[in-house]
Amino acid sequence: MSGNAEADGGVETTARGIETQTASENGGAPSVNARPIAEGLAGVVIAQSEICEVNGERGTLSYRGYDIGELACHATFEETVYLLWYGELPTENALRTFSANLAAEREIEETIWRILTALPCSVEPMDALRTAVSALSCSDADDGDRCLNSNIEKATRLVAKFPTIVANYYHHRQGEPPIHPDPTLSHAANFLHMLHGEHPTDMAARAMDMTMLLMAEHGFNASTFAARVTAATLSDIYSAITTAIGTLKGPLHGGANRRAMKMMLDIGDVDQVVPYIEEALARKERIMGFGHRVYKSAPDPRSAYLRGRLYELCAERGDFHLYELATAIAETVEAKKGLYPNVDFYAAPLLYLLGIPLDLFVAVFAISRIPGWSTHVMEQYARNRLIRPLSAYVGPKDRTYHPRHER
Ligand code: CMC
Q1: Active-site annotation, residues
Q2: Quick one: average pLDDT of 274-278?
Q3: How many CA atoms are closer than 13 Å to the CA of 269, on its beta-carbon side?
């Protein structure tokens, strides 16, 4: 064979860029083209992980062995970030110190602010966040340091600064001055304060906190996997998180919450739900906020907790319209298509009631998911192997090169 053997062994790249593999390199396994293909890697287990267990058959989810329901009802977002990074729940003192360290990192440097305000207002919040995170690496002298302590420091910066970047880029786009973070507030309450310029009610802060907690981690989802692929090349954490942000923004992943909300606003009234869903399904459209790659036979466990919080928020406001509308949509989609709501569905009206503008919905998912991403990047470094799957080549073969003037 011509070409150079790659580092992951057994695979060679020919001069035409076509991968071939011999039976001996392959340990007697069938050649690449004869192997079954797992489109979209569905059902493929690619690594062991101690971070989170997603059980699609039973519809359960746990972080570090703690059921998501227990955490949603009793823990805070900060406590959950500690649990994800350190593997154990913090003591009272440890949590106080940890929360103070996070709060102390909320301000963004002048350089980052200058970069954000230099962006045209047409730039979407997720693109601005991706740009800012990439730029944050430039003010970190040890950006390539992959040891655990250094990465916890970097992850602290990232978790703390995400809300500041998102809220103040929003104000920039609105032509408004930035709002400084308030270190006396919790992570979730501070985000709402930075968006709205006033302290949120306890109910609103708790709803924001729980939404972030429920979205903080979810195994090898697309953005986390993308972050791990980048980390597995031994690139730095900022690069891995930048990759994750780019992956999350797609409509089949984080982008679904905004579209789910748009659908609810389009439908408007409960009596329009059935015809709207029937027509969308007849057009073979995907109903945003429904279906899941892993939760196929049981509902996404996060959606019940989000629905409960939505009910409470509606009760606080004395207006159940959005709760009734969302419930009617969920019942209709389940009846007509057998699909359950995923995390994005009930999160959408919740964020809407919290006064979060629609074009920040995906960025709120990123603010919530950065703890999970960073934990996975650290786990990847701790037991690294380059992630490098194969493809079965189905393009033309054995073609003859003709000089340009003969084509
Ligand atoms: N609406 C209508 N039909 C659907 C939907 C949906 N939301 N989801 C799946 N289907 C149908 C799909 O059309 C296909 O039907 P058929 O076999 O007749 O062609 C069947 O269900 C299987 O779909 P699939 O695309 O093979 O399933 P998947 O496991 O690859 O996709 C998914 C999972 C989440 C991409 C998909 O359910 C979807 O597109 N949902 C809407 C977008 C969404 O809500 N995304 C958020 C996912 S959860 C949070 C996150 O990870 O970001």
Answers
A1: 253, 292, 344
A2: 98
A3: 2
